[in-house]
Amino acid sequence: GDWLRSLLTLKDLFELECHTQSGLELVEKYVKFVKERTEIEQNYAKQLRNLSKKYNIKRSSKDEPECRLSSYQSFLDILNEMNDYAGQRELIAENMMMNICIDLTKYLQDIKQERKMYLIEAKKAQQSLESTYKQLDSSKKRFEREWREAERAAQYAEKTDQDINATKADVEKAKQQAHMRAHVAEECKNDYAAQLQKYNKEQNQFYYIDMPLIFNKLQDLDEKRVRKLAQGYILFSDTEKHVMPIIGKCLEGVTKAGTNVNERNDSMVVIEQNKSGFDRPGDLEFEDYSQGINRASSDSSLSTPKGPMDLLGKNRSKNFWLFSKRSKLSPATLPPFSTPPAPSPANGPPSPKFGRDTLSYCLKEINKTVKPRISSFRTLRRSPTVTEDFGHLPPEQRRKRLQQKLEEIFKELQKEVDQSEALGKMKDVYEKNPQMGDPASLASQISQTSQNIERLRAELNKYEVILSDVPPNSTNRHYIRHRKMLSDSCIFLSSPDGAHSDESTPDASQAIYAEFDDDFEDEELTAPIGSCTAMYNFPGASEGTISMQEGEVLAVVEEDKGDGWTRVRRNNGDEGYIPTSYVTITLNK
């Protein structure tokens, strides 16, 4: 490969080792970078959650009237969407940690071990070649030394043979020495040739087989490292892209929360929550004091006040509900009035006390004495003492509060009835199977449940009577439907065993329910305000409800007023209430 052509001339692996080490350090640096990015994401998500929690409405405040406004609901939706958005940021951090940091760290340990093994093999092959070369050099030097000694011995033997003074024994000895040296030199020559052949073979093995194989393995390892690192780069982007659709939905939810704000509906909710039901005061009557008319004679009745003078005059003993404090006007504080003398030019200009208009003077004097004023909005918020029949509230608010009270009592009563039925069934089981329990052990519970039922029935009847005294609003369909439901429930609970008895005589409240039923049935059909499509089946078994099938399209006659029910109408004219959560509603623009 490319590495092979460039690194075969190296006698060590220093450059190669430095390159692979630099690659490993780059992987470690990238893992550290991603870890710090995940910490940033986690801190960001944590701050977003804390921010949503900080501005979210507490459970105790969710029943406040302001929470029914669409602007408040939209703000809560935005906080929920931001909380979901924070969850997606946490998911990004978690996926980056799992898919990039942990995976690359594990892969880094594996390639470090593999790289170390390849480098050890390369160093062993290089050391083996260097050892063979040392042996070759040693045999070469020995051959060189022995060959020189053999030449020197041969020259000495020839010189001794030519010397006439040398004995035969000296000549023979020199020749034997030269022959021996020549033999040793020949052996060194053969050994050198063998070592040279061995080295060349190992050198070819090292450069053409061993090192190319190791270099190719290291090259493959480094390329896999680069490829793995590139995948980590891509995952860095894909991890965030994967949650982008969900983040987009969160942002769409924020946009939808803004579009769901309906200032008109909010105004209607505020009006519905705060309207008092008081009649508007009539016009003030002119009281001509110049004719000596008694002020008290103008107060004809104790009916609905016609103005502030009625509230402060004959009915001053009653609370003026708009103000938290009573404004009393004592007759003694009024100045005595008498017929003023007619102005005459002889007496000079008219008296400044009366001026030109006697009525203006009287009104000024009254204003000096009676000054009902609202010092601040805090005065309006100070409610009177809460009474059991909610008589301290305005008529409309009182009616709503009585309806809520009846619903609460009815739920408790239904719960007690269910418990009574369950205890009765359990008692029957114990009587048939004594080994399962003693029927007498349930006597106290059955007695207590019966007492609770009687108490709740008494409270239910009491508040029904109170509610019947409050004039109903003919346009309030929910009020009529609520009374019809209570009527059916009371008939069901009127008998001791919970069953309806045909012989039971209706009480006074039943006549009231019948009156409301007649009003409800005689009402003319109202124009639809939209349409809805059923998402689920609804049996419509309760009184006042209507059944529907999944996918059925109905006309919306009246929107949900906050109790979870919407009034709809079929094409054949059948009308009734359905759960708002069971349909998708489209209102006419």
From TrEMBL:
Keyword Membrane: yes
UniProt biased composition (Pro residues): 333-352
UniProt-recorded Gene Ontology molecular function terms: lipid binding
GO CC annotation, single: cell cortex
Subcellular location: Cell membrane; Cytoplasm, Cell cortex; Cytoplasm, Cytoskeleton; Lysosome
Main subcellular location of this protein, as a coarse class: membrane
Entry annotated with the keyword Metal-binding: no
Residues covered by the F-BAR domain: 1-266
Domain of life, per lineage: Eukaryota
Protein name per the record: Cdc42-interacting protein 4 homolog
Naturally occurring in which organism (per UniProt): Sphaeramia orbicularis (orbiculate cardinalfish)
